[in-house]
TrEMBL record:
UniProt-annotated stretches for the region Disordered: 1-22
The organism's taxonomic lineage, starting at the top: Eukaryota, Fungi, Dikarya, Ascomycota, Pezizomycotina
Transmembrane segments: 67-88, 108-126, 138-158, 164-185, 197-216, 228-250, 284-304, 316-333, 354-378, 398-416, 423-441, 488-509, 560-578
Protein name: Major facilitator superfamily (MFS) profile domain-containing protein
Membrane topology: Multi-pass membrane protein
Amino acid sequence: MVQKTTVDSEESSTDIPKAQNSVIDFEARAGANSPGLDEKDIETANDDIGNVTQAGVQNIEAVSMTWTTWSLIIAYIGIFLISFTTSLESQVVMSLSIFATSSFNNHSLISTVLVVQSVVMAVIKAPMAKTADVFGRLEAFTISIILAIIGGATMAISSDVQTYAAAQIFYAAGSTGLQILQQVFIADTTNLLNRALWSSLPQIPFLITVWIGAPIGDKILKTTTWRWGYGIWCIILPVVFLPLALSLLLNNRKAKKAGLTTPSPLKKLGPIATVKTLWNDLDIGGMILLSAAFALILIPLTIASKASNGWASPDIIAMIILGVICLISFPVWESVKKLAPHPLIPLGLLKSRTFCAGCGIGFFYFMAFFLSVQPYFYSYLLVVQDLSIPAAGHVTQVFSFTATVSSVIISFFIKYTKYYKPYITAGALIYLMGIGLMFHYRRENSSIAQIIGTQIAVGIGGGMLNVPAQLAVQASVPSHQNVAVATAVYLTCVEMGGAVGSAIAGVIWGQDIPKKLSKYSSTIDSKAVYNSINNALAYPMGTPERIAINRAYQETMQKLLIVALCVSAPIVVLSLVIKNAKLDAGEDKVKGRVIGGTVEKRKEPALV
């Protein structure tokens, strides 16, 4: 809906106000106070975090001053095209990954690959948000597209599992970069009251892609190889990026001509000064410590069971100890202004209970997800329930479909009730109930309708948790400079939870499946069945071997769901800690044209 706004100056682009001392003067705000913080919180947070607005943030604020209705619409069309493409890509490659790892005779390595992917996704979000704050949104989007293309192309031509796993680093960095940047862009261009609704936009494609992704993956496997399932996106992704890229580029030029943009300070610096400035602005030291901590702690959790001495292996112990040291060192580094003048994660954010509780919800939400719906539920459906590849894919994607519908509906409720806490608490309870139902109907004789019902319940709860919790985190920060990093920290906690959940799932699966296969049958090659799902499916249903395999899968899935139930319980407690803030009682923390806001002193329509 477009509404006309009466203002003081003319509509001509030549009348766009000039920036004074690199500060944008005009803001679209809904009120005086931040809904996630009281006045004391804001004062404390400003002291701890600082009010320095980096060049990338200033530039997007300048671009926001030049948005027209159509340029913003084109930008959002670009966001939708990117989200649709990445959504379809994820659905297709999800059904291909087990066949890719199995082609290297390492089906069990799927957990390790997922952990590597999750670690990269967890690590890259904050650096990518920082890159967007320092260099700009367009530059960060471009870097993400390039990384995704490199990763996809490398996986397509990989000749061994090591190359495939290494390619996941680039692929995960690019795809998660696009994920965080879409949410950052939406936060840049919406007010708080409308943000939950528009933050659901990247999820809407799942309503379609969850049903067509698995059949497309199956068709690829039948007509060619799994390699093309990765390679085709290297062609499609750059094309769908064009609308957003052109919209940002053209409006950036318009803002530059109007004198609104901030010139890069790097242009006047020498090589040494440039390196020093980038080191400080990007907080490279913090990036290294955080990345090392996550990698050194999480990856050993899945490879320990494969090590010669297991958990007693010196390499495993050394990696975990070094990881803990890096994790402890990270907040120390971030708190010293001489070491981190522009910290990767400002520690002042941790003084907001809403911020901390929201991030905690994201962590446990995804941790439980990777212990229940992913990564082994798909294998369980193929083996124990004897579903076809498309059918198993459809069942596992019921969660994504239901969660998307749920999040969109809840976003409308948030928009018109102006509160988010009640929906988070209700979502936490439904999510816990859904996982409980998964545990109850884990049996081999459960009907497909019962299994689908569990996924619907889990999906409804998940949809009521994710977007509202992210909104709560964004609403709790004191300024626009912190919106991107707050979003990144929340999504980092989500991915970190997924990495921990996937690691625990890998440990349980890696220890229990081989033992139970050997226990229940002496005629099958337990190692071969464990390493390749195709070997498990080779035994017909009803044979003694298949009965033993099904029992091993079923009992292992039971243990995974028990752990998932345990880690879902804290979500309910954390939902009660979040402040029940009213969204239209605070400022939006963004400047310029926003969806649902206005631009002062300019005669242009405002989107609502």
